Amino acid sequence: MTTIQDIAELIEASAPRQLAEEWDNVGLLVGDGRRPARRIMTCLTITPGSAAEAVREKADLVVTHHPLPFRPLKRLTSGTPEGRMLLDLIEAHVAVYSAHTAFDSAAKGINQQLAQGLGLAQIEPIVPGDELSGSGRMGRLQTPQTLAELVERVKAFLAIEHLQYVGDDAHQVRKLGIACGSGGDFLDAAQSKGCDCLLTGETRFHTALAAEAQGVGLILAGHFASERFALVQLAGWLDEWLPGVHVWPSRSERDPVRWA
Fold first, then answer.
1. DSSP structure string for 102-162
2. What are 25-44's pLDDT values in tens digits?
3. pTM, full prediction
4. CA pair distance 218, 22, nearest whole angstrom
5. Element spanning 166, H or E
C-alpha cells in the first residue's frame, strides 16, 4: 500500500525541502501521512474550483505548487475562502502537499524544465545551490535570436497566445535568464551574469522600467503559464512512478487573468 507519506518522500527525493526559500511553507501541510494514497491530483493552486474537484473525484492527496495554508492561521473557520477550502478538504480526508520553491529550484524543477524546453545550452542556476539545484536558471541559445523571435518561441513552448515583453524587437538575445512565477527580483543577478533577457511570469512596473533602462529584454509569460505546465508534467511522472495509483492534473484549473 502506497501511503501519503510515501508520496511526500518520493517528491522530496527530487525536490528536497532544504531547497525551499526561508519564507516558504513546504511539505505535507494537511492530512495524515499514514493514510493510503490511491488517487492524487496535481494543481498549481488550490482554488474553490480545484478543491471541489479534489473532493468530487475522491482524491486522497492534492499535490499543489502554491501552499495552502501559506501563512500561519490564527483560526480555521468557514468565514474565509481559505478556511472553507481547508475544512472541505479535511472533511473529505484529502491531504495537501506543496513543494513550491523547492520544486522551482530542483535539478529537474520548473526553471530547469523551462530552460530545457526552450533549448538552452550550458544551463546553470542564476544563484548557485548544490549540484544542479539553485535559484533561477540561465543558459545560452543554440543560435542568437532577436527578442521578437524569442517571444514567439516562448509562446509556442508554453502553448499561449499572448504575453507581455519589454525591449526592442531587434534586441539580440544570446544568453537567457529564467525565473518562473514572480521572478522580477532576479533581474539584477541575471544581468550581472551576462544575460541579455530575463523570462519570468510577472513582475512590478518599476522592474520593467529597470530592464528597459539597463538594456535587458524582459518577457512576462504570466504567472500561471510559467508554472502550470510543470504540474501537468509532475502528474505524468507520478503516474509512471506509482503503478496502481491514479494521478491526474486538475481539469478545472484555469488562469484567473484574462487577456483581451
1. HHHHSTTSHHHHHHHHTT-EEEE-SEE-STT-EESEEEEEEEEEEHHHHHHHHHHHHT-S-
2. 999 999 999 999 999 999 99
3. 0.93
4. 27
5. strand 164-166
